[in-house]
Amino acid sequence: MKPFLKILLTALAVIVLANILPGIAVDGYVSAIIVAVVIALLNMFVRPLLIFFTLPATIVTFGLFLFVINACIILLANKLVDGFAVNGFFAALLFSILLSIFRSALFSLLKEDQKSIEN
What we know:
The chain has helices spanning 2-20, 29-53, 55-60, 65-80, 89-118; strands at 24-26, 84-86. It is mainly alpha-helical. The chain has one domain. Strands 1-2 form a two-stranded antiparallel sheet. The longest helix is centred in the C-terminal third of the chain and has 30 residues, at 89-118.
């Protein structure tokens, strides 16, 4: 149940950010859910490989190169999902930063709800 809820919250964040940011477009709710699933899969399988192969650049830039990797993940999702459009690298960079912030805020709400259920 929890992974499904995380996918739905990520899709909600994608829809909100697509309405706020210029250069990002999502066709609808189904496309946003597909984008959330694709981003989750890319983060699970592709991101660790990118981090491993770019480890020297990540170390030299004190971890700031991870922002570039996140933007590349968003651009890959753009290529894989038809109803999702990103216009350029800097739009993907800003989208990935804001998506991370939104997801961490939404997921922290999940943790607080889980603590109140356990007590």
